[in-house]
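Something for you to look into today, if you have time. Could you write out one complete protein record for me, on any chain you like? The space below this message is yours for that.
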Amino acid sequence: MNAGQQQLDDVPEGDLHFRVPAAAARLTGLRHALSEWAEQCGLSEEDRDALTLASYEAMANSVEHAYVGQLQGVLDLRAVRDEEQGRVVVTVTDYGQWKPPPIDPGSRGRGLPLIRGLTPDANITPSEHGTTVSMSWPISGA
């Protein structure tokens, strides 16, 4: 973890919750922490890789799209193991407003389809207070 990326204190044991400035420089440390967490949860290597990549893409989208025209915003990354449902759930939340996608995105605009292709369950929930991307994967052997 980089300095300034400390897990919040009010997190149940075994879960992750980081609140950091929405800056690209913060994402690598978050990605590594999330990958280690997914391994501890017992996810298969394939699901760990999918979880890490999809989550990284969601965080990158928040950094790039949520705070256009603002100095800087905040990004929340939460990861929980839901034993009752037999799954892990990762949410990425920002508190900005995503800019509308261009009519012709060119070589861009593949992030949300990538996220949806990497998880069996993905929901993108925009609101006037920000956007939350929620993704889940089954726990191996659950």
Observations:
- The helical segments are 27-40, 45-65, 111-118.
- The chain has three helices and five strands.
- The chain has one domain: 16-138.
- The longest strand covers residues 74-82.
